[in-house]
Amino acid sequence: MDNRPAQAIATITDASRALFRNPTVVFRPSAYWFWHAIPDAETSRRQLADFKAQGFGTILIQARIAFPRDRYMSEAFRAAYRKAIGIAGELGLKAGIYDDYNWISGHAGGRTVEGRDDLRERHLFWATTEKGGGEISNIRTPFVQSMGPDIMGWQYENGAVLWGDWAIEAALLHSADDLDSSRTAEDVTDRVALSHSDGVSCRYAFDGEVPAGRKLTVFVSARSTSSRLINYLMPAAAQRFIAVGLDPIVAALGDLVPDPLGFVFYDQPAAGFYRWDQISGNLGNSILFSDELRSHIDGATGVSFPLTLHSLLYGESETTLRLRAKFYEAYSGLMNEAFFGTLRAWAEGKGLLLSGHEILPHVGSWSLNGGFTSIDPRVAPATDFFGIDAFRHETAVDANNFIAQLAPKLGDSVARSNGRSRCAVETYASALRTRVRAAGQWELTLETMRAQAIRLYCLGARQFLWHGLYQTDGSDADTTPFVNPRFDFGPGINFEPWWPYHHLFAEETARISAFIEPATPHAPVAILYPLNTAWSEGPRHAHADHIGAWCEHLLALGCDFMLVSEDDVERAVVKDDRLSALSGLAFDAVVLPSVTVMKSRAALDRLIDLQTAGGAVWCSGAMPAVLREGPMPALGSWASTHLADRPDAVSVTALLETLPKRGPLLSTPTGEKPWQWIGREADGSWRVVLFNDGLEPTSCDLNLLTGFDCEIWRPATGEITSEAGLSSLHLLIEPQMVWCMRLLPIDGTGWRDLTISEIAWPRGPVAVLAEGWTFEAGGGGIVVPISVERGWERQGFATFSGTGVYRNRISVETAGRWLLELPRVETAAAVCLNGIEIGRHAWSPYRFDLGCLGAGSYDLAIAVSNTAANRYYAGTPYQGEKLDASGLLAAPRLIAHEADLTGTTSC
């Protein structure tokens, strides 16, 4: 309980209510504003005013690949940038600097390396043979090449991957069978020399014969002569990036920094993920190389550079695993400090905050490396997510498509570990109907987008960052991905027909985020983020899938969790039977997901303390066997539970049954729980968010161990109502409905049970309105008869994307209060009765209270806006097998208020 005076707590609560009713820009949606050309002032003002009207709070200008690269950072670009940010400030919008051209922060549209070839990315390659000579050849970047020639042309001059400045960096003779470097390797670097090199390959020769039973591994460095990407190990590269890519913008903005422009946002800095024909061993891509790396690694490992490099590839002994972890810690630390450290120091000097996200190999997935499965994230600024976040002022992550995933949960976790909370989640859409991912999802509905936003808030997001708002919707004549803005990770939601409804989404979701803000998550379980295991074992190790399995099962069972670092565990204290972290979170159980390598004894000791005190330590898969900082002690049976295999729903259910029951208790008749978020305020009250993202109604019983008063905070309207003296609350939750409730524990007796639902009045007779409808597409003046039981795309309007109006003359035979229900709509609808708008909805349930109607006839109009898919994909390779459903797909229904018809209520 909070020890602050009751008056102070009341003041905080009043502020929370005010924030809920009118959320600030911190909680409102933000977006990249894609520029495809330099806009004039009129275009900027028109679009920014539109973004503001639709509920956005923050804008980041991003030049996309359609923008002429030679005009990026030009005087005209900077002048338009200043004008746009000035207009944004006048409108009450906030802004941040998206720090690069297109994406991959650091290159400044190629300006960073122009005239500075020394700053271009330099990599270390290797080959292992049984012969005295070998080669490095066919170096390629599948990660980039998969996105097509235009992306290659943006990242590489003339679209070709070329190399130069080849050099032998290390060479070792080692056993062909026993690959442990500490026992078998001999440094022969001075006996290997280059025999040939050109722009695409090199050959080398060994001075002598490779003995029988031995192999030769040679490490060769090369600098890409054509890449516009930088060497992230070099502070000079980050400094040059700032000089040519950030300072000119800040100088142009002048007094607009730090308000309305208050932060800089980096995006996925990473050099090319290269592979070549001779690649082998544990490491899946080349690593960045610099002269500083050699001395840095020597000092960090205490082992010669060649032997350390060999350990990255071969061997599984304790010595090798330990050496790998030490290498990657030093390598990541050098890279993080050189790039993120330089950026942070610059940002603070300009009065700006630093935010952004690194490459997230788990994007779109729960498995730690289930998103970008083709890369080895250890070579990039990645893997050490807790360490990277320490350089940010505000946490941000990346999410792909409209499914629950690890990114926001990990983002919230690293933020709390570093003394903050929650995160911004950049959300982008990859195509589902075609293998060309950049074609996007123009079939996206606001209902889908809203459901994802609510899930993100339940998983740790504070702000929804959309990718993106478009300056233009591109061309009908070009299907080239990226180059045609239309197919550059669509949709540009401001070109969706349902865009005028976006403000409804913005207001409601911002209130949900503001509602969550004052409380600390109730997360009974901590999952140890196995950093040293990830470094030592690599991304294909079982720890990645074990994390995914734990996350999915815990959430499905209604148990929230956080990821914690070893440092978090080490700094925590065991209080009673819980692990209390410095972040303010307290855990009943800690999970070790197939952890094999840990940093030191300190975190293990804390886990043993937890288990001894009555808390729980759950392990799955492999058990810890190696400590990076010393020998592993004989621990005996120190874990509460060890699951030999990946956890399943049955085993996780059984484990959760052993935990103490704390906080609100939720139960459902089927056992399948709605999406939920539970948090506790400093005064002991609880905040609960429940969301049904399914297709069927569900119910939920909500209880505390004591009685409680309940405040119902309605995010759609900002209304707050109260129910006092409850023992339980039974909720009926229809599809797409969300509840926000604040529970205040009370003492006493005489509590009551309460049942509530969204339907506030009983249903009476129903009239199905199936006949007599006409339809007008897009205000064209052509009115035709239409069926309301199948979409307009099947009735002569196959490529029409826009707003179509259904009209009918309906009869009401009995005076009373009436409701109009639209059982199936694609995708947003506004209802007018006798020319007066009754209401607007863009997600289920589509119900419109028509109020009290006398007997008689009425003109009913239903304006429905679909998605842009049928128009933008028509005649393209991205169309898919069928058209998107559009308009009304089932007959509207008039439903009477039963009490009004019987005369028991006043109409």
Automatic annotation (TrEMBL):
Domain of life: Bacteria
Name the record gives this protein: Carbohydrate-binding protein
Lineage, broadest ranks: Bacteria, Pseudomonadati, Pseudomonadota, Alphaproteobacteria, Hyphomicrobiales
